[in-house]
Amino acid sequence: MSTPVIELSGVAKRFGGVVAVRHVDLALFPGEVHALLGENGAGKSTLVNMLAGIHRPDAGAIIVDGAEVTIPNPRTSRALGISVVHQHPVTFPDLTVTENIMLAGPAPRRRTRLLDWGTARRHAREALARLDVHLDISAEVKHLSAADQQLLEIAKALDTGTRLLVLDEPTAALSTREVDRLMEIIARLKADGVSILFVGHRLNEVFALADRVSVSRDGATVVTGPAHEFTPESAVGHMVGRSVETAFPKAEVELGPARLEVRGLSRRGAYTDVSFTVRRGEILGLAGLVGAGRTEIARGLFGLEPADSGEIVLDGAAVSIGSPQQAMRHGVAYVPEDRHSEGVVLEHSIGFNLPLALLERRPRLGLLSPQADRALAGDYIDRLRIRTSGPDQLLGALSGGNQQKVVIAKWLATDPSVLILDDPTKGIDVGAKAEVHQLISGMAERGLTIILISNELEELLAVSDRVITFYRGAQGPEFDRRPFDAEQVLAAMTGQVSDVHV
After folding, report:
1. Coiled-coil regions in this chain (predicted)?
2. Contact between residue 32 and residue 57 where contact means Cβ atoms under 8 Å apart
């Protein structure tokens, strides 16, 4: 085998108390597609960001052509021949294809320092021609399909000096036909000698493309080998790696009658014909890859992005939920995935944040009571064991786990009957996760109905009483017998099975 384009040796990265990448070894060769597999949270995106110059490793080495290098910024990454296409396209929708490609590098200018639009348009045509992609270079990007925007991202990333192309979940928003088109382009780049690191979850695509496969688990490389030595089943086995029951013991709860029923819920472009029932004291897990529609369903149930059709039934009565205010009146609460932008105000105190969800219940002309707010905050600080100096402490000064407890407390203060938790342990350390798991289990014991979304499959299977899988917006197999088979659930999430109900 030829000399690697890029090698990573013992690379590690920590964010505060959270270890994102523990120990990764990876060698990427020219003219090869190397697939990187792993569950959500396995450290794949952090690894991509280190190659892109967004994050710097805390330990280990990045080696280019046999020499150790430092990649302090994206410009250095590009200079080393590394081009990265991130999971979410970074385009300017109101600008044209030409303008988007021009902004990816130094803009061509005339001697007068004015922009050279003729050269910019020629560069745009050349970038698209290299991929055999035919786009109107004068079209505004917002009018392109998701697939064409993804191809535009690749065209922006590539230049004549690209030696390594990193594709992070490039097919998440693409249809089957669009994926086939992308695969043809990857094959063409491979034939040109470009090294390709393909980060993906969809195993059928991985094994159709990859020459070699590496699996990452808990931030470390656990196995690397030729693609033909793996099967989808063996890859899933390496990704899961261990029994979930030993890591997160779960209290058994006697379930009550049906509290929430969803019938044929659909929203164009997000999810279709979703139906399920959740009982009192039950924790229902929604499993799926990023883009599978889980968060959109949660936001629909809370009225943030109402469904186009279908019915929501609470305690046997059909209800209309077209806004968060209506959801709250019906006893539905939602802890969002991004607590910083949607859950709390970091610049204010716990006593300010915790009563925010109760404002609508106060008289329109009623006065705020700082004393009552501090008393409410103090009560939940004690109940949820929030580590803080008191209600007056700024939320931004708390650890991630304690911030998350405040978000949960804010919604528990509304006395909900249904609580939707979207990735509630995202970005918090292991110890804090265990405390949040205990909190969730305790809420279920008290009869609260919980819908749980988590990008960590291990966590989801450990905490849930029942799991429903989703794949590309469609409801898939349901698993209702614990202990769950992690390999079967992950296979359903990746579209490998369609007829499992256990």
Report:
1. none
2. no
